[in-house]
Amino acid sequence: MPLRHGGQILADQLALRAIKRVFSVPGESFLAALDGLYDSGIQVVTCRQEGGAAMMAEAHGKLTGQPGVLFVTRGPGASNASAGLHVAQHDGTPMVVFVGQIAAAHRDRGAFQEVNYSEFFGGFVKWVAEVDQTDRLPEYIDRAFRVAMSGRPGPVVLAVPEDMLSDSCDVPDRRPQPLPLSPDLGAFAEQALARLAGAKRPLVVVGGSHWSSEDAARLEVFGSRHALPIAVPFRRQDYIDNRAACYVGDLGVGMNPKLGQALRDADVVLALGTRLGDTATNGYSLMDPQDHGKILIHAHPDAAELGRVYATQLSAVASAPDALRALMAQPEKQHDDSWLRMLRSHYESWQTPQTTPGAVKMEQIIRVLSDTLPPDAIITNGAGNYAAFVHRYFRFKGYGTQVAPTSGSMGYGLPAAIAAKLENPEKTVVCMAGDGCFQMTLNELSTAMQHDASVIVIVVNNGRYGTIRMHQEKIYPGRVSGTDLVNPNFVDLIKSYGGDGCKVLKTEDFRGALQQATQSNKLSLIELVTDGEALSTGATLSEIRRAGEAREPA
Hints:
It is globular and about 70 Å long. The protein contains 21 helices and 20 strands. Strands 3-2-4-5-7-6 form a 6-stranded parallel sheet, with helices on both faces. Strands 11-10-9-12-13-14 form a 6-stranded parallel sheet, with helices on both faces. A 6-stranded parallel sheet has the order 16-15-17-18-20-19, with helices on both faces. Helix 1 (6-16) packs across helix 2 and helix 3 packs parallel to helix 4 (76-91).
């Protein structure tokens, strides 16, 4: 074998795994890795801050099902990246992170930017390790990719000391290994369908990782064939075409109360891939972990999740797609569809816009987006009350069209949109962001400009951290503290990055602004100036304040 420095060995391992793009903020601690990437044919997306870079890598993993790859430097770089790693861990997204580290000879001396990454990242990634020997790089990298993809996917961190990367050796490459074969799920599927056939109020909840467009189509057939209502957890709405008659909505923040009641009333729940966490169960109030009073059939790729919170009557260690394929192989059983038809009618009613105050009405804006964007358009968002309008009124029509953090991380929308556009340059990519959410990562507009990612950013500007203000008014009505914002001129800002922008002051002006943005093929921004009273999909600021005042002791 020819001598190669560690950075070249690393880059060659990435090329063997068909990695075509990595995200990075460069640092002197991994110069050899950057050198190795120089002739690799792998695109290096140069970002502006490690938090944004990590969110781009996470979004890439979410969209492709393959690990997003991130390079960050030691100390502050790794600290900044941690927000994106938290998203990956919470959302079950495969990700491999290379962190530059101090020279091995200087370890434990408190050297410049020294961090013990096993201690720092150990609590919220799947695996973290430090590579001490150049000739073990192929071994560690192979393991990192396998761990990131196995079971419930997630982020893996490899710390790579700079002297180890610059040293040379003649180690052979380690090629990717085939994934393990799926177990036979025939008995599980047969028993699951028998339990569902005897149910009066069945509910299927599908989430988790490993999904695809083919799985989404298969799920629709499965629900229709057996007259089963299909619900999804928080921000997994693109797992099935929302226009399908068997789709009944999402169990997430601001969920349809009637769907929440359906989960409470269900006598048999088939959970595929989802953990049925606190968001899907409204803080575990819709399913009591002590005694949920229903038959729970649970398939999950991580055996540790089965029975962890809820007692199950039937379970399988399997991904949602594997379990679904096994269920589809079973004979069709006849079901009464009255329960399904009722839940679908509840979903349709929930889609009827509830009027909000002001000249710019978010419920109408989202319906315009839903009705006019191409079916394969990708919608990204971070966290904030503005996103609740997307959850409630946008109908996702295919898998890979919703890219959002189930972890509820602010600032996610723009980095995710950039990653989505780089992976799908032919598609329309729209980032929905609140004024506070957008400003957490708006510096990544430079990344979009540099790499020709012509995304459309829609900024909902109400001059405040709206979600926190909502909770503030509920608990401490009228005592506004720390939630108001003074914002820049967003239209001038996008123009400074070479993009187009406009401000929308009336709902009826939005359609034209959207058409102009989609036709321009340029980085674009539409600022929606909303009324301060329009705080959520279901209540105004004054209504929330009055409710809070009514709860105060006399």
